[in-house]
Amino acid sequence: MQATLPPQPTSNRAKPYQQKVYIKKPANLAGLRAAEKLARLLSGQVIAEKFTWEEWGTKFQASSSCSEAIARFEKHYLNQGGSKDTWNGDYWKIYKRLPKTAAVSPDVFTALTEGTIPNTRTRQRTVTALATLAKFSGIDWNGKHLKGSYSPQKTAPRELPDDREIADYRESLNRSRIRHGSGCMGSWPAMACETMRFFT
After folding, report:
1. Strand blocks (E) in 11-169
2. For residue 15, what are the contacts with CB-CB under 8 A and spacing of at least 6?
3. Which of 12, 71, 114, 198 could form a Cys-Cys staple with 107, CB 3.0–4.6 A?
4. In angstroms, rounded to a whole number, what is the distance separating the alpha carbons of residues 81 and 193?
């Protein structure tokens, strides 16, 4: 369910805003009827100012700082069989940019994400890492709306010279060894360092 609700204990916001409450009901007629009852209950609590996040199944560690949450998650991740290399490359690389003493919260995660360039691999990896930490810490944040449209299949178009231009440039080279070397590089998958070994 989604409604205008008071800020969560881990949020830096002062006023109510649109948030989701997960009720874990099946997507069928019985689940719909149960959801309607819960929606009326939720609305009544909000109007009467008796709504609490704890009552709706959300557990918090309000005093948990980013550094504490990261340390707990690292221990959990490694105990579950995760590798230290993956931790350093996929998680710690992102988490070390979080403010150490700030409480873990959606606002902190959003601020770090928005500090990256949109529609890039860095933005995508940041969202993925922070969403994992948020889930582990019981924070309602997944960052999907910030992830962007990055795809490794999308490449910028390149302007390459045609064969005639390449041949003309090769012939314009003064040193014959360089001409021969560039010819080898163009004919076979040879690297410059490999080719120059024979022509210099």
Report:
1. 17-20
2. 7
3. 12
4. 41
